[in-house]
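Q: Could you fold this chain for me?
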Amino acid sequence: MIKRVIFRAKLLPYLLVAPQIAITLIFFIWPAAQAVKQSVFIEGPFGGNAQFVWLENFTALFSDPNYLHSARVTVVLVWPYAVAPAVAGVLWGFMFNPSVGIFSYLLNHYGYDWNYVLNGGQALFLVIAAATWNQISYNFLFFLAGLQSIPKSLIEAAAIDGAGPGRRFWTIILPLLSPTAFFLLVVNVVHAFFQTFGIIHAVTQGGPAKATEILVFKVYNDGFRGLDLGGSAAQSVVLMAIVIGLTVIQFRYIERKVHY
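A: Sure. Below is the predicted structure, expressed as structure tokens.
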């Protein structure tokens, strides 16, 4: 039997959801619509004289080697599911600072030439390491809560039936943890596209030689530094489409393997 809440005043349900709808429209729908609109125009950095160019911004975008490089760097950063604020970037940047960092001192002491300011590969490794370190605790808490919610009676019953540790993990623990794993997969992938901005801005500024310039940082560089509003708007639309596409794929295909 499905219980339904009946309101005597017909307008009350609409009034209850009105604040959330207003927030969604003002802070999400309207900015997204403005970005889509601006991406098909070319205009000056101070506004005015906007010229409709249809898809020329997107054509220039996908033919720009710097943008394609930023896309490749973003793909690399997605794999460790990086979610890192600027604080983690400052901390790791200080520890691996070529001049005063303790870890850079140890690396140089044992014969490894460490200088992420000049070496793009080392800078990218530092960004990945800092972002992954910052995200581990977030994932750990969710997995710990998921493990604690698994009934011990199921594991004990499987052990009595002769199932070994590996068998118990693959047939009981992992399937029951799949909702938690799926949730973290979606959250981490979406956040990896945006939260790495803080660490890159604090440590490398996208360098050296654009080695750590991910898509969202390129949007910032082109829009706020280069004052290319149309191009940066087009990039933000592409980034939004990528994130939505990845989320849809995850819910469409990966969720089939999730056991609730």
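A (continued): Residues 120-148 form the longest helix (29 residues).
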